[in-house]
Amino acid sequence: MKRILSTLTALCCTFISLTASATGPDTLRVLSIANSLGVDQVENNLHEIGKADGLVLVIGSLYYPACDLKTHHANALCDSAAYSYRKINAAGQRVKRSGSTMEYALLDEPWDVVSIMQAGNMAGQIETYEPYLTEIIRYV
Q1: What gap in Å lies between CA 9 and CA 5, rounded to an integer?
Q2: pTM (2 decimals)?
Q3: Cβ(58)–Cβ(29) under 8 Å?
Q4: What's the pLDDT tens digit per position in 57-85?
Q5: Are the CB atoms for 12 and 108 separated by under 8 Å?
Q6: Which alpha helices (H) appear in 44-130, and where do they start and end?
Q7: What does 36-56 look like in DSSP terms, one character per residue?
Q8: 28 with 88: CB under 8 angstroms?
Q9: Radius of gyration over every alpha carbon of the chain, rounded to an integer in angstroms
């Protein structure tokens, strides 16, 4: 469990919730609200890393190309179906749903961890995070 949490910490920008899973201590549900960088980080090998540690992972990826926090915030406010929602279930099976809203993804699973990612060209520029990050956290 420590290794998977360390990996998640290294991969994702902002964790806003980390609690015990409703299905037991060996299952972790991770949702990434991101752009292509986030997709790469959570969809490639994270499930396998968890499995190697004896952890069952459910991984959700709410993807919008080149999306920044301002756009994620606007999409949440207007319930925009602009996202591709991809999920790797506990058995490792991948499913994809186009035209998804942030609300759909958030309600799909009892997520333990939600990661919200800033666009790569704005990452580290703290002045681009607010007020959008705080508002997205409230929405989540």
Answers
A1: 6
A2: 0.77
A3: yes
A4: 999 999 998 889 999 999 999 999 999 99
A5: no
A6: 46-52, 69-77, 102-108
A7: HHHHHHHHSSHHHHHHHTT-E
A8: no
A9: 14
